[in-house]
Design a protein that fits this description.
Chain B: It catalyses: hydrogen sulfide + 3 NADP(+) + 3 H2O = sulfite + 3 NADPH + 4 H(+). The complex is a heterodimer of chains A (620) and B (579). Chain A has 620 residues and is of the alpha/beta class. Chain A is built from 23 helices and 19 strands. Chain B starts with 15 loop residues before the first helix and ends in a 15-residue tail after the last helix. Chain B has helices spanning 16-23, 31-36, 45-53, 65-70, 92-104, 125-137, 163-178, 185-190, 290-304, 315-322, 324-335, 383-393, 413-425, 436-439, 461-474, 534-551, 558-564; strands at residues 56-60, 77-83, 89-90, 110-112, 118-123, 154-155, 226-229, 243-250, 253-261, 280-285, 355-358, 364-368, 374-375, 377-378, 381-382, 397-400, 406-411, 441-443, 484-487, 501-507, 510-515, 526-532. Chain B is of the alpha+beta class and 579 residues long. Classes of the chains: A alpha/beta (620), B alpha+beta (579).
Chain lengths: 620, 579
Amino acid sequence: MQLKVTNSPFTEEQVELLNKLLPTLTEAQTQWLGGFLTFYRAGAASAETAASAQLIAPALEQAAQAVASVSAAPREATILFGSQTGNSQRLAGKLAEKLKAQGFDVTLSAMNAYKTNGLKKTAHLFIVASTHGEGDPPDNALTFHEFLYSKRAPKLDGLKFSVLALGDTSYEFFCKTGIDFDERLAELGAERLTARVDCDLDFEGPAGEWMASVIGALDAATGAGAAAATAGAPSASAATAPAESEYSRSNPFKAEVLTTINLNGRGSDRETRHLELSLEGSGLSYEPGDCVGIYPENDPALVDSIIAAMNWSPSEVVVPGKDGDEGTLRSALLRQFEITVLTKPLLEKAAAFTDNGQLAELLAPEKKAELKAYTNGRDLLDLLQDFGPWKLTAAGLVSILRKMPPRLYSIASSNKANEDEVHLTIRKVEYEAHGRARGGVCSVQVSERLAEGDSLPIFIQHNPNFKLPANPETPIIMVGPGTGVAPFRAFLEEREELGSEGKTWLFYGDRHFVTDFLYQTDWQRMLKDGVLTKLDVAFSRDTKEKVYVQHRMLQQAAELYAWLQEGAHVYVCGDEKHMAHDVHNALLTIIEQQGGLDAEAAKAYLAELQAQQRYQRDVY
Amino acid sequence: MTKGHKVEPVGGPPSDVEHLKKESNYLRGSLVESLQNRITGGLSELDNRLLKFHGSYMQDDRDVRNERQKQKLEPSFQFMLRVVTPGGVSTPEQWLVIDELAEKYGSGSIKLTTRQAFQLHGVLKWNLKDTIRTINDTLLTTLAACGDVNRNVMCNPNPEQSQVHSDVFYWAQQITNHLAPRTPAYHEIWLDGEKLIDSTELLKAEGADPVEPIYGPVYLPRKFKIGIAVPPSNDVDVYSQDLGYIAIVEKGKLVGFNVTVGGGMGMTHGDTNTYPQLGRVIGFIRPEQVNDIAEKTVTIQRDYGNRSVRKYARFKYTIDRHGLDWFVAELQERLGWELEPARPFHFESSGDRYGWQKDKNGRWNLTLYIQSGRVADQEGYELKTGLREIAKIHTGDFRLTANQNLMIAGITTAKKAKIIELLGKHGITDGGNHSAIRRSSLSCVALPTCGLAMAEAERYLPTLIDKLEPILEEIGLRDDEINIRMTGCPNGCARPALGEIAFIGKSPGKYNMYMGAGFSGDRLSKLYRENVDENEILDTLTPILHRYAAERDNNEHFGDFVIRTGYVKPVLSGTDFHS
């Protein structure tokens, strides 16, 4: 068999090298190499490799000794992640695979599940952490973040580390959690193995480079031979998950729209789409709690306004064509680039193309507040209109824009109950700002420009931090107002499909009972059939005093606490800023009152639930 | 007529509703729990049945029923609330309360019904209790506005017109109180147990039910309707009532009433065993005997009405089954006294007199034409706002008429000018600007809220009249009253069987067309065309109206004309309605 790019996971260059080498090997050399490679995959000892390892045991031993003799620092590393939607976790896992393949002894853990006394024992620490909202750490990074900043944090002299930070430049506190870890570890005496890398929404590239630099530096530090050419070989990761679909974040599947329904009744001031997408032929599968990423299209009216404002030709080719797309200015602005969000890096790059001093002035360090006020609610059209005249070509503009980021939506269906389908719940975001009607790119597209039979480029984003309990009999409490209810439809469908007898309790809320009770008849049926044990609802605009889910929780404090004591898992999904915060406080109050605990003890109780993965949140 | 002639009640297993009533523990059922359930805006079938006795129906907006099903939303459940207003009389304070509730909890408008009651639509389940409590706080009630009990007692709405009218109104209130259900369930559920007005204690006969001495634990087999007419006006359509009283006035004094029994409007399409019927006069009674007659008549229907098949359960069928003689004998046995022979009387019309009238006390009464009884604001015709402004300064009463119109009664000379000013400011007229046929029209609510409707009524009749008006104008009949009535189903809320021209809904856009009822409500109409749409209606009516204009005798009413000229046969008894 001849190795080719098409029948192997290797690049053209690698195939060439391997094909040059392999035919020259003797039988003994082939066996030795097999053992050597097995060693490189230490930890993934399948029955198959164990059997072949026996055959070649002497060779293996030899190889191990050879590696050990050249090692200086221990080939050992700890990788910790703080992840909300699963991106950081996935990247941390990727690094772990790479290091294991290099023969490293790797400890991979979520930050909240990590025993902090391990910090003094490890030689290398790698951190992958995302940032949420106003610079907040993800849920499973909270306790570790707090620990490092507390007086109990140990001196970490001798520890080598590096941080990969995920974030979004459109937020003021870009990558703050990663920055916090990076700075604090240095303060505690640890030494940077490589510089921190901060990633914007399009993180795959920079994350790959960070991993390459980390591995390179480790090689140097531990004295390993450069024998394994790992740096800059991203395609190697394909080998780690052979059963997965060919479709991914970087290769989205075009899913056909089977059904699109507005879930809000006539007279509502909201519009929420229930989308049913076909996964037929994709090989994609998902678990309850996972998300779908959608690559949306920008509003054609906005794209045309931008092109008209600059007096450019929509058909000018500005980027390489792909997938039958010719890469014209219009199609690139529609599908490939973000045009609805202004970030500081974009403004800085744009400033080079205008003599309008106002833009440079706005970017001055002391004008931080003014900059924030300007970018808030404005888009590319505003920028181009406000700071001309421009010395900018269409291709030049495109080169400074961020790639179109995918939008993530919690899946509202169970794969077991809906083979080859995935359901989503998407609320249209619309608002008026700076004299113009504006809206969410994806939600407006889905609401206004997507019909049954059309298709959407999607991928599955697994979320290991929002999962049903392993035991289907464990009671679950679900708090999901508004579109936050989506994953709980998936949870309940799954439990129904499994025939689980575990108790289930849903707290739901929205504005008006009559028009905004998402999936009302689904819940009614599930209540009747016993799949849903309890349902409590709060509609905030139907009564004089606004009632929210947390009020319903407090009204049922005794029973809710009893469920917790029985081992119930608590899930919260939806708005982070207000709802998740209020629900968190309601839980603390309930634990405090019902458990007869003081505030500190209640906090510890809830932290313990979180550490045991019995309190999980999917908030945005 | 043999005294003591006994008949057997109708056999057959009791209907489901009878079981529900029996198990409800005097109308309680599980209403309290159902009202607290926040997951649905509706009620269970059982509780909805019981809720009717409390004055409310569960409905849903049928315009959006199918679309909501696709949206995974339950039907847009909402409640109609009917307020008992004997004789249609309410104070300005009460008007303001109803007006505010319509805005706060209802669909924004007030419906004046064909039985002189207020109706609010669109009340959500969670607001029912507050709405009902507020209504009770203003000394009105919803108890027994619907359900298998005596309904709102109708009477000519103008007690100020003469002492007679005033006396008649007094008796309407007496009957209402006497036949009101006694169960404490209403107060328990809606008023947290408090009872605002203590109804007159009944003399409890031996062996009578301890909670409901008149009705017993399963109440009546169907609804029961009572109305009092003051000749020459038959505005209450006395012959359409299960039990009717016709005031007999001698030398300017109310001396008593002729009693009619066995009238009723409802029927079922395709079932000729069901039919509208006219009440028949059975004799004369003295005023103080009014309650006794009402009570004993009700107990006969309680004991002999059909409890097996609800569509055959109205009192008219009980009488037609056993004969009028049997009924009179049974009644007199229960009364322990005999009725006197009926006395002469004469009806002229069943319509309202619009405009200003001065009464015996020197006060002014203004009757306003209210299309379909719907009090709402329109551009240039701010009826609801205008009436609210009037209620704020008015020292008399508001009177709901049996023709869905409104009388502002007892206006002092001092207030008259101010009220005229307010009417003008809000574009309200007495209806003189409308054609006579429009002013003589009646329609029920029908779509979108009524669960029984098969076709439009309130939302469509005005449009049909728009198309008839030019025809009438052309032939010079603009100011001639012709009673025209439309209902969305054959249950007859707008008394179509007593319309000179009537339409009963069959399916969307299609109606059965009837003609020939008496102008004063003394003769039923007759089916003339089946399943006709608007074009067929206009094509059919136009030549008849032309001929009527050309060939009618002096003051000959349309209903009489179509009989004389042979379009339809006269129907003087419901048993001939289908023949």
